[in-house]
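Dig into my protein:

:::
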Amino acid sequence: MVCIITGDIVGSRKLKETWLEGLKTALKKVGGHKWEIYRGDSFQLEVKAEEALKSAIYLKACIRTNKAADVRMGVGLGNIKTKRAKLTEASGDVFVNSGIAFDRLKQSKVNLSIKTDFPQFDEEINVLLKLSLIAMDSWGIVAAEMVKHALEHENILQSELAVISGRTQSSVSEALKRAHFSEIMEMDKLFRKKLNQLLSV
């Protein structure tokens, strides 16, 4: 089982072009070579199933470091049937699930949703995502920046994050608290646990 994230940049035409370089850098970081940008502001990338939420959270943080920028993402889990050189030309239920999750975003009035072949799992995780979006959709530039740094440099002390970001330790701590970073990481941990339980049945 793999994950395909289908996304687009909200209101990209109103933004300065700097978001595009930021998006490319973020996609390379989480997707390696397995990503593609199409139609100017839409993208698709492949990541490991267990990295699905963390990758989406990281992409969200990277985009939110641009003032007024945001991103919509449909997260699909499943299998790839046919691989192609271009990710957008491959097929399999993972692509169908990702597309369905993405198409439901406007209807559900949310910016992040997940779809698998397990409805109960989807229902539980999507409730958690809706709650987490209360925090993530209101990230300011500094909070998003700190989440980005924290995900890029996991398992390091806040004092080290302060050096990397050029901020004081107290401002790093405050920004991560404001971003509800520890709670969002707890959600990711629970997602991984539930996914492992699902795959081990």
Observations:
- The chain has a mean pLDDT of 92.
- The longest strand covers residues 2-10.
